[in-house]
Amino acid sequence: MLRILTGTIFCFSLILFFSVYISPEFFPYAGLLTLLIPPLIIINILILILLTLAKRRLALLPLIALIFGWKFVGVTLQFNPRPENPQGLSVLSYNVHLLRYTKIGEDHNTVTKNIIKWLKDNPSDIKCFQEFYQDFTTPSQNAIKAIGTDSGYEYSYQEIVGNPTKRSYGMVIFSKHPIINEGRVFDTKSNNGVIFADIKVDKDTIRIYNAHLESMSISSEGLSNLDGIKENYRETLGKLKRGQLVRASQIEILKEHMSNSPYANILVGDFNDVPYSYTYFSLRKIMENAFENAGRGFGFTYNKVLFFLRIDNIFYDDILQVVRFKTHREVDYSDHYPISATFDWEKPLRKIPQDE
């Protein structure tokens, strides 16, 4: 019985550990199963300890499983040192929920005022926002003016829905440094997309990608109790499958675009996917992750019922070096927490020679 149980857990562990490298086109429900990876790691550790104490050769199976799955520990939990006053290029990413995320008893105008003030006062060199709402018709809610032009930032705003001269929402990149080129990689004409800006910093140029990948469109409240899960499980499974497939195609478009970038890339945003996913590991193959290399704790970024999710990230080309990463859990103006990273800016960052 012990052999069967240990062997079954071993086989299931290996399948899940390698499923993150398989496109959802071939493994459409992997996104649900891979959420079991953290408890599987713990189970394998416990089995290894028990079988080792019992001096059973069967302990080799959980040991092998842990060797293949150990990478998931680093994407889950980190203990990197956190310097107090890091020097370099600082980048902020924040899904701002249309600048009007209200809780019970709150007025959305007050919330908008508070979040705009926080975004304006944040000293980051580059600020990237998803679900950004812009109102050119109301001076007190003209976020681009308050955060950007009035604060000395250049900006690249790409609206997705609405009137570009009145009210709209989309994605924006603010920069203290000159923006010499900008554009969009794609958008869905609903609420998602990827934009980029080439930013000249001293004698070098960096390309910043601001991403908001396809959402599952699943109500977290509906998943907060057993009755809600039973009632909506078919619909939920369908949304999970669709979300994974769309994000997989979006990732391929994004990777191709980044491969043609003449500059070092920094990719930030709301990826709507956990670290145990094809989305995350597709990017991890070609880029470094700021949380893994400079973060602390679990780095959870979701500010609702499913609080244990880290779906916002900062990736970067390995020519760069991150010196600090932070999840700003003290800032609760949205259903996401802001994240920021500081990069060392002492060395040249060119991917190809440029004219001075």
Keyword list:
DNA damage, six-stranded mixed beta sheet, 26% strand, Endonuclease/exonuclease/phosphatase family protein, 2 domains, 356 residues, globular, transmembrane helix, disordered C terminus, transmembrane, 14 strands, alpha+beta, Deoxyribonuclease I, Chain A, DNA repair
Question: What does this entry show, briefly?
Answer:
The protein has 356 residues and is α+β, with helices and mostly antiparallel strands. It contains ten helices and 14 strands.
- Using the alpha-carbon principal axes, give the shape: globular
Structural class: alpha+beta
Integer-rounded radius of gyration: 22 Å
The total tally of domains equals 2
Transmembrane segments: 5-23, 29-51, 58-79
GO molecular function: endonuclease activity
InterPro entries: Endo/exonu/phosph_ase_sf, Endo/exonuclease/phosphatase, TDP2-like
Domain Endonuclease/exonuclease/phosphatase: 93-336
Fold and architecture overview:
This protein has 356 residues and is α+β, with helices and mostly antiparallel strands. The protein folds into 2 domains: 2-69; 79-343, Deoxyribonuclease I, Chain A. The chain is 34% helix and 26% strand. The chain is built from 10 helices and 14 strands. The chain has helices spanning 2-19, 30-33, 37-53, 60-69, 71-76, 108-121, 143-148, 226-259, 278-284, 290-294, and strands at residues 78-79, 89-95, 126-135, 154-162, 167-175, 179-187, 193-201, 204-212, 264-270, 288-289, 296-297, 312-316, 322-327, 339-343. Strands 4-5-3-2-14-13 form a 6-stranded mixed β-sheet. A 6-stranded mixed β-sheet has the order 6-7-8-9-12-10. Helix 3 packs antiparallel against helix 4 and helix 8 runs parallel beside helix 9 (278-284). The chain is globular, with a radius of gyration of 22 Å. The N and C termini lie far apart (70 Å).
